[in-house]
Structures are given as C-alpha cells and as structure tokens.
Automatic annotation (TrEMBL):
PROSITE patterns: AMP_BINDING (PS00455). Belongs to the ATP-dependent AMP-binding enzyme family. It catalyses: a long-chain fatty acid + ATP + CoA = a long-chain fatty acyl-CoA + AMP + diphosphate; tetracosanoate + ATP + CoA = tetracosanoyl-CoA + AMP + diphosphate; a very long-chain fatty acid + ATP + CoA = a very long-chain fatty acyl-CoA + AMP + diphosphate. It holds the Pfam family AMP-binding. Gene3D superfamilies: 3.30.300.30, N-terminal domain of ligase-like. It comes from Notothenia coriiceps. The gene is LOC104960091. It comes from the Eukaryota. Residues 57-365 form the AMP-dependent synthetase/ligase domain. One of its GO terms (molecular function) is nucleotide binding. This is long-chain-fatty-acid--CoA ligase. PANTHER family: LONG-CHAIN FATTY ACID TRANSPORT PROTEIN, LONG-CHAIN FATTY ACID TRANSPORT PROTEIN 2.
Amino acid sequence: MLVWIVFAAVGLLALFFRNPHFFQDVQFVREKLKRRSRILKYMQTNYSILDRFIDAEKEHPHKPFILFGDETFTYRDAEELSNKAARVFLQSGLLKQGDTVALFLGNEPVFLWLWLGLVKIGCSAALLNCNIRSKSLLHCFKCSGARTLVAAEELQDAVDEVLPVLLEQQVTVFILTDRCRTADVQSFKDKMSQASSEPLSKDLRSHLTLRSPAAYIYTSGTTGFPKAAAISHAKLWQVASFPSLVGMNSDDVIYISLPLYHTTGFLGFASAIDRGITLALRSKFSVSQFWNDCRKYDVTVIQYIGEIMRYLCNTPKKPNDRSHKVRLAVGNGIRADVWRDFISRFGNVKIREFYGATEGNFGLINYCGKIGAVGRDSFLHRRYFPHAVIKFDVETETPLRDSYGLCIEAAKGEPGLLVSEISLMAPFSGYMGDLQQSEKKRLHDVRRKGDLYFNTGDLLRIEEDNFIYFQDRVGDTFRWKGENVATTEVADVITMVDCIKEANVYGVEVPGHEGRAGMAAINLTEGLRFDSAAVFKHVENVLPAYARPRFLRIKSSLDVTGTFKHLKMKLVAEGFNPNQITDPIYFLDEKDKSYVPLTVDKFNFITSGQIKM
C-alpha cells in the first residue's frame, strides 16, 4: 500500500512539472520491483535457473532450444545431454559438492550442456576466455580455484603449452574429443556418449542456495589480468530476467554471436531459459553471415555490443537489408551516429541500450529509446534502487568529498562516478581470490557515515532532461591542460573522418608537462590513405584544443578483447617514441595546420621542451 501511495504522490508532482516520460519511469520501476519480488520468492524456495530449465523441458520437451549451424536441439535433447555430462563428472570421482570446474571453449552447444550438468551435481563453472594463452590462462585458472579443466579440441595446443604447470598442480584435464593425443589428458566426448541420460537426483544439489556461485565470469582484462567475478544463482536470475524488462517474450527467437564466456552471451542463454524460448547460437560473430542467420532462424531478438552494430552498418548496402523479422536489439555501447544509421538502414528495430557490469549490483536501461542514452534518472528509481553520480578526480582516481567526509553529487551535465548501494538486495560478491581488488570496488561513507556503495569505475553524466549518458571508464579519461579528456568522445569524433575506420584513444606522458597528451592508435579505411590535413581540420573544428589528439599512430589492426573492447595498456606503455615504434606516427602541428610525420628529431625536440605543446 505504501508503495502505491508513493507512486500516486510522485505522479501528481510529475504532472505538475510536466515530465513527458513519467509513466515510462513509473512502469520501469514497477517492473523492476516485480522482478525483485519474484527473485525474493525464488530465494525462499531455492528455485534456480536450472529448476526453471527442468520445468521448461517438462512443459515443452520438443520445442527447439538451441539452433546451431544445421543442428536443432530440443529442450528434451538439452536435458538428456546435460545429464550425460553430469554423469561423466560424477563417475570421474574428482568432484565434490561445491567444487568449480573451469570451462575453456568457445560457442558450441556442449558449453551449455556442461554448465547445466555441473549445476545438476551441485558444482559451478569458471568460464575462461578461449582467446587467453600462457600466463593469462594460468592466472585465470588459478583464480577460479578449480582442480578440473575441460577444454575444446581446437584449444589443445593452448592447453599443451601450460600442461606441465597444470600437472604439477595435480589438475585433471579433459579434452572435448573422442580420443586424446596426449597421455596426460583425458577424453570427454566418448565418456559422455556412453553415459546414461537418466535424470539425476535433486539431492546432489540440495546444499545449493541462490547465494551459492553459479559461475565465475571474468572481466575483460583491458587494464590488466582478468578478474573472476562470482555470479550467484540470485545474480543469474537478475541477469536472466533483464530482457523481459525490455519486452522479450516466450515467442521470441534470440540470436547470440557474442561469447558465452562473457556476461552478455551468458545473459542471452539464461534469459532464453527464463522465457522458455529458442536460442540461435553462432560459434563466432560474422558480419557477412549475421543477417543470413537472422533470416535462416527467424530471429526476432538480437544481442549486440557497439562494435557489432558499427560493423553491420559498414557493410555494403543490399536490397534485402530490411528483409528480416528482428524487432528488438538489446545491448550496450552503441554510438549515437551508428544508432541512427542502423535504424535508418535496417528498419524499425527497437534498440534497448543498457548499462551494467559483470561484477556490478546495479543496471540501467534506456526504455524510452532516446538515442545515445543508457537510461533515465528518476526519484522513484533512486528511492528503490539507491545510486548516485558523484564528483570524481580523474588524476587521483578518487571521489571528491565535503567537509564532513561525504561524497558530493555531480551537477546536471557534469560527468561523475556512478556508484550504487551495496545491500542484501543488491550485494557485491567481489572477485574470486582477490581481496585487494574487491575492496577497491567498495566505497565507504558516500551519502552518510557507515554506508557502503559499489564503485562502478565508470563515469556517467545526467543531463537536464534526466537522461543518463555513458562518458568514459575511470583510467581511460585523462587530464591535459587542466581539463578532463574523455577517450570515447574523442574516438567518436575522429572516426567521423572518412579515412579513419576505427580509433583507440589514450593519454601518454610527455616530459616537462603535467597530465597526459592525447594519442590515438588508428586503423585506416580500406582503400583510403591517411589525409593529414583533413583530419587536422576536422579535429580543430569539432574538438576543443585540449581534447585534440597530439599524436596519431597508424596501425594495420587494433588489438581488442573477445567482446571487441580496445586494449590500451600496451599502447600507453609504448608511448610515442619513433625509436621504439615501427608504425607511422604523426604529430599535430598547429603551424602547418596538419598532422605531420613524427621524426626522431621532432621527438627529441618535444621531449627536450624545444617544441611547445
């Protein structure tokens, strides 16, 4: 009753102030509260995503669950195959209740059978990025606490590289093949084909609660080694029920080409179970096959990250661009210009941009469809899901505080750090085996003494119309000439020049100067040469002087993570020294009104202070 009184009171105020999005704001908060209530109910009965899958299999056993290539797996198929996988683990005698198994494979149906099978026997999975190798692979495996590794057949070379270390630590290694070429590893598929598909006793997972870990998903590793974020069964419910907030229903077919080892891909899998729908899975994103797949599988919902949408828009136009059934696109990171291009070219697809983090306890959704925004700020949302955008010093990477030691809320239009309250309803589980990094994400005394908030590590801004926009990631933003430079904004601007296909912007130290000078590693558009004068003219017209990249480094390709996020650490460390970098480097020359080649002499003049910046 109290909730509805609050809604009514706020409604009268909104009508008074003529908020055109009031009813959308109310509806969004109402749906989030219903989702919270639903998860609380599930927590009381320990009803997990696995339980939902088992119920869905009973409701429609012959409904297609996974479409992969030319194969179709029904809900009954998935139930039986996951039972087989579970029995292989049980018969190995290696696992006990609560153990973790590391999965090292790409997008294929067996990934899903393995996860379901592990939960059926009361265990969890660490989802390793299938692109990591050597030290990074060992680091991620160690973080998980696993004593068993299951790897794809095509990744056996990567496993062999670290196998001596794994064997020394008495780790059991399975390869998803019928026969292994190495005596020190075991095959898995032959054992799975011989195992029984009969259901397993629920007693095997009787110890699990919704606070138990369902999986460990790793951060992208753009700023160092990936960190393992614990995803509880309750958090998985939150992730799974998220797409329903933007209108996904039980008749949809969702297309996943993003990695299942990443939150975005796993979200699609979990939400398919929640809604009881069909999932069309691709081993890896293909720009040339994307729309063909959508037509082949009658896809109605697609998942995206910003780069995917840009790749699709950069393909040559075709007469059948609008010949598809896709009605909804759910994802994050799409640029405003790409957003406009996408709906103009591919039709009236509802784009629902969201904001969230793998380890985070809070999320935003742009339920109004405002191009460029990630969500809206409203009294109701803050009331029931406490969060704030606070003033932040990007140089010291610390929040600004008042004389009482509390954080200061950022003004409208001012970029600030997004923080969200940590509570029983919005917990932060931390990183597996990394207490120091976990504590860095906890922020004390934010709005009152003794409170505790999650530090998202992201800078956002709230505009006068209460729409929220992503600004940059902490650590990516840098200061130059006393001003904050947002790398994402600069990258968006310089990629508007025809000759620049993509850009990775970062700050580099210059001797004798405070802060960091802007530098961009760029990849040229195929068939076009670098037009130094045109680039200079564009950045001069659009960017303030402090935000203009001082250096441009032309690369044949830009290094990215498995989810297409640019890697910056190595570029920052390499700086702009032409003695150590073989790529062409250009320097912003304001006298010549152009970007000019950075010679060794010019480099020496800059570092000695003879050329002023």
